[in-house]
Amino acid sequence: MITGSLRRRIVAAGALVLTGALALTACGEKKDTTEPTASITPKSGPDQKLAAMVPADVKSDGVIKIGSDTTYAPAEFLENNKAIGFDVDLFDAAAAKLGLKTQWITTPFTGVITGVKSGKYEAGISSLTINPDRLKDTEMVSYFNSPIQWVVKKGNPQGVQPESACGKKVAVQTGTVEVPDLQQKSKACKDAGKPAITIDQFQDQSTATAAVVSGKDDAGSADYPVFVDAVDKSNGQLELLGEPYGQAPYGVALKKGQTQFAEAVAGAYKAIITDGTYKQILDKWKVAKGAITDPAVNPKVS
After folding, report:
1. Which terminus, N or C, of the chain has the lesser number of Cβ atoms within 10 Å?
2. CATH number of the structural domain spanning residue 109
3. Please, which residues have CB within 8 angstroms of residue 30's CB and are 6 or more apart in sequence?
C-alpha cells in the first residue's frame, strides 16, 4: 500500500461554492464536447436512518461545509467559481443521502486537515490519501482508490521508464505520495551505482504537468486520475507511460471522535454505490479504474 504524508498543492484561497446536493453542476474545464456536462443525481432521496446519524450542529442549517484545495482536476477544481470534479459529484450525491446540501470552500491543501481539526470545516475532501498520520488526527471514510501513473511527452523522446528512470528529471507536486515513491526509486538508482533521479517538485500540479509538456522535465508522476485528465486535454502533447501501480485510498476527513457521523458518510457512499450513481459519476469523469465496493471508516493502511 502506497501512503504519504500529504498529497499536493497550494492554491490561492477564497472562493466559496454552494451547490445543491440534489442538483449537481458539472461542466468541464473546457467548453468542448470532450468534457462531462450532464448532471447526475441519486436515484432516490435521503436515507432517514443515515440522516439521523448526522450531528445536530451539522444538520441544523442543512449544509455541510467542506474544505477542499480545488486545483486538482478531475477530482476537484473550479469552473466559473463553482467546484466540480468527481470528488465533488460523489460527495454531493452522498450528502443528498444524508439530507444535506454542500458548501465547498477553497483552501490551501495544507489547511484542509487543520481546518477539520479546528472545526472550521465539517469535512475535508481533497483527494486526501488515507495514511496513519491522518488517521491519528481525523476520522476518515474511504471512497476511491488511486494508483500512481507516469506521463511523458508524446512518443517518450527521452526513453523514460518508471522502473528505470535513473538520471532522468521527473516533475511531481510537492507533498504528494509520489514524492516518497520517487525518493525510493532514486535511492535504488544510487545503490546500484547509477545516477539519481532528479525530483523536480512544484507547489501545484498544473505547473508540474506543464514542465513535462515544455520538455523542462523528462516525465511526470501523479495520481492516476490527474494524468488521465491531463492527457485528455493535452491536444496530443502527452501520453500515459506504463501501467498505473500501487493503491492510494482517498478518504473524507471528519473531526476526530465523530465516529457515528463517519459511519453515516460511509453508509451514504454505499447507498450511491448500490443505486448505481457512484458508477455513473466515475464513468462520467473517466476514472472508473479507481472504483471501490466497500467504503470503510478508518481502514487499515500501512
Report:
1. C
2. 3.40.190.10
3. 233
Task: Tell me which of 43 and 180 has the higher pLDDT.
Answer: 180
In a domain, 6, yes or no: no
Whole-model pTM: value is 0.79
What is the span of the domain harbouring residue 171?
Answer: 147-246
> Which pLDDT score is estimated for 79?
94
Asked if 249 and 174 count as a contact pair (C-beta separation under 8 A), the reply is no
**Helix pair angle (86-97, 259-274), 10° resolution:** 100
Q: Is the dihedral of CA 138, 267, 67, 87 positive or negative?
A: positive
The DSSP code sequence of 6-22 is ----------EEEE-TT
Q: Are residues 106 and 151 in the same domain?
A: no
First-to-final CA distance of the chain:
6
CA distances 248 to 92, 180, 185, Å, are: 22, 13, 18
Percentages of the chain per state (helix, strand, coil), in multiples of 5: 30, 25, 45
* Distance between CA atoms of residues 242 and 220, nearest Å: 12
Shared-domain flag, residues 230 and 105: no
Q: How far does CA 39 lie from the centroid of its chain?
A: 20
Using an 8 Å Cβ cutoff, are 4 and 177 in contact? yes
pLDDT at 182: 97
